[in-house]
Write a structure and sequence with these properties.
single chain; alpha/beta; 8-stranded mixed β-sheet; 24 helices; 14 strands; 619 residues
Length: 619
């Protein structure tokens, strides 16, 4: 029986070491790039530690077939049953070696990991040869052969154990069959935490080449493939001629003149963005919600500008992050943040502000691995990133992470030490289930969303306390605070999830840096939270052309429209009508507009979806 157990463990150990061998070869191959960026050797060494959990998850997936064979061999062990394991593992070694060699070849040009798109190129090896330098091609071919032979030799000579003439022990077989699958499953998930691991787990450095080297190739390729099953080589949302769709979208963003209303007293304020987890407009009295849920937010409105026609582009946090920091709208079927090869092509508000002299930081009391947010945030080059594990262990926390009051306090004290001007973002957690905040729940109504509104009441209380404290800070008068939701949430009104009412969210600009005549006002321009980059940059006099999906809400000449993605379609809102359409059954959930404008409304909404998804699919 020891042979069975040792065989499984040694195969796991083989995969961990083989992954690291591939990683080492990748780093050696790109030594010159590391030297150009002057990356310290100690930081390079981190790839072998931070890759471990994702490597373990990948290894556990690869061990499913060997496990099944070992179960059989525990009761029936002829010599020929050893060959399927060797053949299977040899194929997997070859497959992984191929991904590594391919990744070495594309990194210098693409600066990404190998993705599903590589499958197209691998199907035409002559094109690969013709497009690569001959020396490089044969060097990569040599690396492929070396990795394969080294891996196969090590596996067969050192790690594989022949299973022959095993004495049957039915109790052992039963226990092996019952206990091992849960352990493999835990390994696949990366632990017993609520959120399974993803590529973010291996991100640790501000040097993206190290993060990509740390991410397991097979795991990344699986995620990339899974996220794009619906749109290999095609955009499933083609409704019209490409030129017509692009013309329509260009018309949507056409502004006759720049007549931006300047609402700030300075072009270089400190900027603090507070991203509210799952805040629906129904939580805010002046956005149509019932009074008493968020009284502190109601008070803050008196010192700021409330936008009352803002809609969340997506329904998940990772989509909200791409909206806020890259001005990229949510799309159906997938999220751009889960795919590093795609989000590296997006513009970045933090990176742009870094280049304009801002110090940057990001705070979240939970785990950033959800939706690969950590990978996206790290690529955006925030100077300081704090998530749950990074905060002092003494801070009280619930199931999802540190409670909002403590995260807000930590950021407040940190900002006093940061170089000004600063750009800091904080993402709250307490309005996400399980709503285990350390605070009374005084709202005894709300039916199915009773816990949610009390979670919002707590976060609102934390906001009030935060601003009472921050108002005494020396940097308060020169700081613009932006309070915005990442996405909405079902409320006590129980809107249909595909309706525009469900997707409406709060957006508030607040602070003494706002000109006095605009404080306490309401801004009615229709838009999304991905309009934030263009709106903010226009106030700062910084060109925002890179954020071409973002419009300036303070420019009266900007057209008024909002979009939101459903799982398989689009919601489209104009001042005089709106609709929500689903691709699957080709069905309109909602279509509320005068018959005279319905066709044009649908035409421009579908054009927006077609062009934005084209950009997502990309090449």
């Amino acid at each position: 029986m020891k042979k069975i157990l040792s065989s499984l463990f040694l195969q796991y150990l083989f995969w961990i070491l083989f992954f690291d061998l591939n990683r080492l070869v990748f780093i050696l191959y790109h030594t010159r790039l590391l030297a150009v960026e002057k990356i310290p050797v100690t930081e390079v060494a981190g790839i072998f530690w931070y890759s471990l959990r994702l490597d373990t998850g990948t290894a556990c997936y690869l061990l499913v077939i060997p496990f099944i064979l070992l179960v059989v061999q525990s009761v029936y062990s002829p010599s020929w049953l050893n060959y399927p394991n060797k053949i299977y593992t040899g194929i997997m070694i070859l497959a992984y070696s191929l991904t590594e060699a391919g990744e070495m070849g594309i990194y210098a040009e693409w600066k990404t990991k190998l993705t599903y798109k590589a499958l197209k190129y691998l199907s035409h090896p002559t094109e690969i040869y013709n497009s690569a330098q001959t020396l490089i091609f044969f060097l990569l071919l040599g690396i492929l052969i070396f990795l394969f032979l080294a891996g196969l030799f090590a596996y067969l000579r050192i790690f594989y154990r022949e299973i022959l003439h095993v004495r049957r022990n039915w109790i052992f077989t039963f226990l092996f069959l019952v206990i091992t699958p849960p352990l493999l499953l835990i390994g696949m998930r990366g632990g017993v935490q609520q959120i399974p691991i993803n590529q973010s787990e291996s991100y640790y450095s501000r040097y993206n080449i190290l993060n990509l080297a740390s991410v397991n190739n097979l795991f990344n390729l699986y995620i990339s493939t899974f996220e794009n099953l619906h749109n290999f080589n095609r955009n499933p949302f083609i409704f019209m001629d490409e030129k017509e769709a692009e013309r329509q979208v260009k018309e949507l963003f056409r502004t006759p003149s720049d007549s931006t209303v300047k609402i700030l007293t300075t072009r270089r304020p400190n900027i603090v963005i507070l991203i509210l987890e799952s805040w629906s407009a129904d939580l805010v009295e002046d956005l149509g919600g019932k009074p008493g849920i968020t009284p502190e937010f109601h008070e803050l409105e008196k010192g700021g500008i409330l936008f009352d026609q803002i809609y969340a582009s997506g329904s998940r946090s990772e989509q909200g992050m791409a909206c806020i920091f890259s001005g990229f709208p949510a799309i159906p079927l997938s999220s751009i943040t889960v795919q590093p090869d795609k989000f590296v092509k997006l513009p970045s508000l933090p990176r742009l502000l870094n280049s304009n002299g801002y110090s940057t930081s990001f705070y979240f009391g939970g785990q950033l691995i959800y939706g690969n947010i950590k990978g996206y945030i790290m690529y955006n080059n925030f100077g300081k990133i704090m998530e749950g594990y990074d905060f002092p262990s003494s801070l009280p926390r619930g199931k999802l992470g540190i409670h909002d009051q403590y995260t807000l306090d930590y950021q407040l004290h940190d900002l006093g030490k940061q170089q000004q001007p600063f750009f800091s973002a904080l993402f709250t957690v307490s309005t996400h289930s399980p709503y285990d905040q350390p605070y009374p729940k005084p709202l005894n109504w709300g039916d199915n969303e009773h816990e949610y509104i009390n979670g919002a009441y707590y976060t609102d209380h934390c906001l009030g306390d935060y601003f009472r404290k921050v108002s005494h800070e020396p940097w308060f008068d020169s700081t613009l605070f932006i309070i915005v939701a990442d996405h909405s949430h079902n409320s006590y009104r129980n809107w249909h999830p595909n309706s525009k009412y469900y997707h409406k969210i709060p957006l508030l600009f607040y602070g003494k840096v706002i000109k006095e005549q605009y404080r306490g006002t309401v801004w009615h321009h229709l838009g999304n939270q991905h309009d934030l980059p263009a709106t903010l940059l226009a106030q700062m006099g910084i060109p925002a052309q890179a954020f071409h999906w973002s419009k300036n809400l303070f420019n009266p000449g900007s057209q008024q429209f909002a979009q939101y993605a459903t799982e398989d379609g689009i919601g489209w809102i104009r001042p005089d009508g709106w609709f929500c359409w689903d691709e699957g059954p080709n069905y309109f959930y909602f279509l509320e507009a005068d018959p005279a404008i319905r066709d044009s409304l649908i035409h421009e909404g579908k054009a927006y979806l077609q062009v934005s998804f084209n950009e997502y699919v990309g090449d």
